[in-house]
Amino acid sequence: MHTRLWLVSHAATAAMRSGRFPADDPLDARGQDDAHAYRTQLDVPRDALVFSSPAPCARETAAALNLTADIAPALADMSYGRWHGQRVADIATDELPMLSAWSTDPHAAPPDGESFATVSTRVAQWLEQLADVPAVVAVTHAVVIRAALLHALRAPLTAYTRIEIGPLSRIELQRSTRGWVWWPAA
């Protein structure tokens, strides 16, 4: 069966704008306004299954987009462990070698956190469960979208540093008998 999947990154949070690692942040007024404005650009089938990361920012983005989403734990953001909610600048001062390794090596993880490789495995398993679903929308995080895109392209995990996904970005993946492919989002 053919599957179309739209992956949407959540709206920006105050923590993102202040250079902090995510900390289960809700959307602030600016993020809410951005998501409401983006609603007119999101054209997906009405019968699509809709999923969201469990994070407040993703759930609130889905709601602002007028989507009723089921929570999918596989779409959760990376666990940043001890860096949860910390300023990136502070981590760069205090733990630069570890931050450098994490930002270049997909198998490196923050202290007590999760590596990109682990996220990629989780996302790949979720994608493969969508084989019999014709249309899906998922509101999630940039790191999850990077992992999905690399899985679709069968690209090496080291390519994750070459993919930028901004707030309220969207990509489309389609699955057919030849597997997952990336389509330009219209």
TrEMBL record:
UniProt xrefs under Gene3D superfamilies: Phosphoglycerate mutase-like (3.40.50.1240)
Record-level Gene Ontology MF annotations: phosphatase activity
SMART domains (UniProt xref): PGAM
Pfam families xrefs: His_Phos_1
Protein name: Broad specificity phosphatase PhoE
Organism field: Paraburkholderia megapolitana
